[in-house]
Specification:
Elements (H helix, E strand, L loop, with lengths): L1 H8 L5 H31 L4 H24 L6 H20 L3 H23 L5 H27 L1 H32 L4 H19 L3 H8 L7
The structure holds fe (ii) ion (2 copies).
């Protein structure tokens, strides 16, 4: 009820909304573009899963096109430069891990962190989105669950040998997520999404993923709040 009330108050044509949307929309487009590239890189690193990963990569491209259409529909020009800066740290860490052949770190960054972040954000966005964007986002979020699942299944199968690298990659990358959330707090609020709700949804998805991979409850608590207090 609260979300419905909030949505009816949102003016998708106001300058304030469009200004915030130019950054959030750009982030989403950039995120999908990087996801596309990251799955292609993963396809190189995991040749035995090449077809599946190339398939995921194509889905990300379609998502990107969908969100570009959302921006055009609201007559908003995405702020690409802002979005590239927003993802720079995670992007760099992925690239470096890939260059070192660290598949586990790459999967943690893309299939766990970025997918959980996307699922949380899209889930919170759907109830407050304009009708055009809502339909697109509903289709996209279903796909993101299958991408998260790919990472979970692979990491579960390799849990024992991957565990130490997962913990290390979590320490390196999770604090970046909290920083990213802080950077979009204001704009997300303008679009009708509360930061606390985004954090909560991210935590739920991420802890569940860690649990599915094989971490104990105690380990999950330690891993999933890493760096949160400093943010
Ligand atoms: Fe996507
Ligand atoms: Fe995805």
């Amino acid at each position: 009820m609260q979300q419905l009330a909030a949505q009816s108050e949102i003016d998708f044509t106001s300058q304030t909304y469009k200004d915030a949307y130019s950054r959030i929309n750009a982030i989403v487009i950039e995120g999908e573009q990087q996801a596309h590239e990251n799955y292609l890189k993963l396809a190189e690193l995991l040749p035995e899963h090449k077809d599946e990963l190339v398939g995921l990569s194509k889905m990300e491209s379609r998502h990107k096109k969908g969100f570009e259409a959302c921006g055009r529909n609201l007559q908003v020009t995405p702020d690409t430069e802002f979005a590239q800066q927003f993802f720079a740290e995670l992007h760099q860490n992925f690239q470096q891990a890939a260059a070192e052949g660290k598949v586990v770190s790459c999967l943690l960054i893309q299939s766990l962190i970025i997918e959980c972040f996307a699922i949380a954000a899209y889930h919170r966005y759907i109830p407050v989105a304009d009708p055009f964007a809502r339909k697109i986002t509903e289709g996209v979020v279903k796909d993101e669950y299958t991408h998260l699942n790919f990472g979970e299944v692979w990491l579960k199968e390799h849990f024992l040998e991957a565990k130490a690298e997962l913990e290390q990659a979590n320490r390196q990358n999770l604090p970046i997520v909290w920083k990213m959330l802080n950077k979009v707090e204001q704009d997300a609020e303008t679009l009708g999404m509360e930061k606390e709700a985004l954090v909560e949804d991210f935590m739920i998805q991420y802890s569940e993923a860690l649990s599915n991979i094989g971490f104990s409850n105690r380990e999950i608590v330690r891993l999933s709040v890493y760096g949160l207090k400093a943010a």
